[in-house]
Design a protein that fits this description.
heterodimer, A: 121 residues, mainly beta, globular, B: 107 residues, 7-stranded mixed beta sheet, 0% helix, 50% strand
């Protein structure tokens, strides 16, 4: 069974760095073609794709957030980490990680439950 | 970035109705298009991948079509449990992008 779970602080202050961890099971990032993405959703708003990391450690970022985001992986520990620097109240959102299996042309087939982050002083 | 535009933004339909949601890409994305369903307080769920392939376990009343820039999600006979927001997403070019969502309500 494939599962993903996001974890991180529920509350961060403006200008701080946010670190989120996606811990997964049931698949491996060492599998050819496997990828993991981060997506967020501000309250009452649409989904926003943030970043992706591939098996070969290729990394891709949202255009508007690329200077503030870093994605990394630990294949042996089955986790993917997303850091966001200089957070602002507009970064308040539910953050999801999702698996992108090989061969699906980019469809995110299994998602975590999400973790809610509030940016406030 | 490729912009994804969904229409309508919301709709209200009766149980048993045929419902169609459209998604337009700002440039050709071949069939690199997925559809997701999201219910309040829940994570999105994959319905359709590769524009028209039904994800395992998804009811056959859901179908997708299209290629290039114009895509459609159809619910052939709307059921009460289909009340949700639906999103399209392109994976042709990074950064990947989502549509703004279509909220489907049951009359």
């Amino acid at each position: 069974q494939v599962t993903l779970k996001e974890s991180g602080p529920a509350l961060v202050k403006p200008t701080q760095t946010l670190t989120l961890t996606c811990t997964f099971s049931g698949f491996s990032l060492s599998t050819s073609g496997m990828r993991v993405a981060w997506i967020r959703q501000p309250p009452g708003k649409a989904l926003e794709w943030l970043a992706r990391i591939d098996r070969d450690d290729a990394k891709f970022y949202s255009t508007s957030l690329r200077t503030r985001l870093t994605i990394s992986k630990d294949t042996f520990k089955n986790l993917v980490v997303l850091t966001m620097t200089k957070v602002d109240p507009v970064d308040t959102a539910t953050y999801y990680c999702a698996r992108i299996p090989p061969g699906g042309n980019g469809a995110m087939d299994v998602w975590g439950q999400g973790t809610t982050v509030t940016v406030s002083s | 970035d490729i912009q994804m535009t969904q229409s309508p933004s919301s709709l209200s339909a009766s149980v048993g109705d045929r419902v169609t949601i459209t998604c337009r890409a700002s440039q050709s994305i071949s069939i690199y298009l997925s559809w997701y369903q999201q219910k309040p307080g829940k994570a999105p769920k994959l319905l359709i991948f590769d524009a028209s392939s039904l994800q395992s376990g998804v009811p056959s009343r859901f179908s997708g079509s299209g290629s290039g820039t114009d895509f459609t999600l159809t619910i052939s006979s709307l059921q009460p449990e289909d009340s949700a927001t639906f999103y399209c997403q392109q994976s042709h070019t990074t950064p990947w992008t989502f549509g703004q969502g279509t909220k489907v309500e049951i009359k």
